[in-house]
Amino acid sequence: MNLKVESGDIAAWKGDGIVVNLFEGATSPAGATAAVDKALNGLLGKLIASGDVKGKFGNATVVHTIDKLPAARVCVVGLGKENEFTLDRARHAAANGAKELRKAGAKKIAVVAAGGGGAADAAQATAEGVVMGLWRFPKYKGEKENGDVEEVVIVESDAAKKSDVERGVAHGKIFGDATNFARDLANEPGNAMTPTRLAEIAGEMAKQNGLEFYVIDRVQAKELGMGSFLGVAQGSDEPPAMIVMRYWGAGKDAAPGFGIVGKGITFDSGGISLKPGEGMQDMKGDMSGGAATIAAMSAIAQLKPKINVTGIVAATENMPSGKAYKPGDILRAMNGKTIEIINTDAEGRLVLADAVAYASGTLKLSPIVDAATLTGAVVVALGNVRTGVFANDDAWAKTICETGNDIGEKMWQMPMDEEYAEQIKSDWADMKNTGGRAGGSITGAWVIRHFVADGTKWAHLDIAGTTNIGGGKDRGYINQWGTGVPTRTFVNLALKLAKN
Length: 500
Fold this sequence. Notes:
Layout: E1 2-7, E2 17-22, H1 31-39, H2 43-50, E3 60-64, E4 73-78, H3 87-103, E5 108-112, H4 119-133, E6 151-156, H5 162-187, H6 195-209, E7 212-216, H7 218-224, H8 227-233, E8 241-248, E9 258-268, H9 288-303, E10 308-318, E11 330-332, E12 338-340, H10 348-362, E13 368-372, H11 377-382, E14 387-391, H12 394-406, E15 411-413, H13 418-421, E16 431-432, H14 440-449, E17 458-462, H15 487-499
Parallel strand pairs: 1-6, 2-4, 2-5, 5-6, 9-10, 9-13, 12-16, 13-17, 14-15
Antiparallel strand pairs: 3-4, 7-8, 8-10, 11-12, 14-17
Helix pairs in contact: 3-4, 4-5, 5-9, 6-9, 8-10, 9-15, 10-14, 12-15
């Protein structure tokens, strides 16, 4: 899809459809919507008065212009109440409008950026909404859906703001494309997206973007003492891969920098503690944290912040076999700590144990954030709306929550009291890999915390709920499965840390 900026009057723009905005409770159109209404001889105003066009958040109404405008259709999208408007609502509105026009068969559309802040921020949010909203994954379908939108134009009426809008749109496209990259990876089936293939894709991305890249294979992982990672991997015939991508924005003489770590279980059967068959097909997406890590590194490389950033993905399958690790086994991670296995389906924390030990202990990265579809317990606690944030530093957790909330990847800090760590004490090893049902997302985070080097700021994002919103339909720019969360949070954290 081609995304560009033009200055001028959207009412005079020629194409298949245009998107304009309306606040809830407005009795008459304003701004660009008013200009379109005037060209339509007051049609929009009449539809607003009759209640056929509403400004309620999430609404999108397509109206045929019947040759009164150069554009064949106009889509009026609701922004909700003006005092509740945010840039994230602008993202959703742009997505809703673009999708409605696509449904009507539009190939070339134009959008007005809605936003109460600066022109660049409004344009970035609009571009993100359009790019993410129009994402689909038809790769394996024989019968194709309505054709894709081929061109989207962001129209700015003030020519003096065009350069700001162009900058915002360029950034928005990078953020949106990165999120869609993560979605593509997460939606690939497990027979196509093996650890080896995930490493190949990461390597191709790294080469395109000038990143340092290497993979720690099974032999090297054994030499490094990554017994926890290899324990999970031993049940599968697919070789594991600890994928490492390094961006040197501040130079190799500067501090090692920011670390992003992702769980990359390309298929999770549960292992010997086999999952129920119902819903197991969705376990192709158990590498969503790894997908977000790879995608975020691609965006960071393009945005070029002056900070060093390293992305690490612990990729393997978790399968049952005669070689698979078993309940009762004891694994030793690379920092020397041992873990008694209670349930082989609690494998994400085990692969992350060695990944964060390598990130913090060997590479000396700080701060670090990891992302994983770790627990069903976080879905019970927070549903499909917010990602759970667990950290050893409250200030770092606050930064992550604020960053995610600002860009629509909603976060919520969860407790990490020492008492929860009591639940994972073992009679036979340094810890158990599960602590029972009570506080399951917290005890899972505590397992990972034991492998963070002393003095390292660390946070864990449990995205088990937010990577799959369910509900039977998309929500604005948020797709139902493999949402790409928390790609944009990772990228914005890098930008924020670089500024500071």
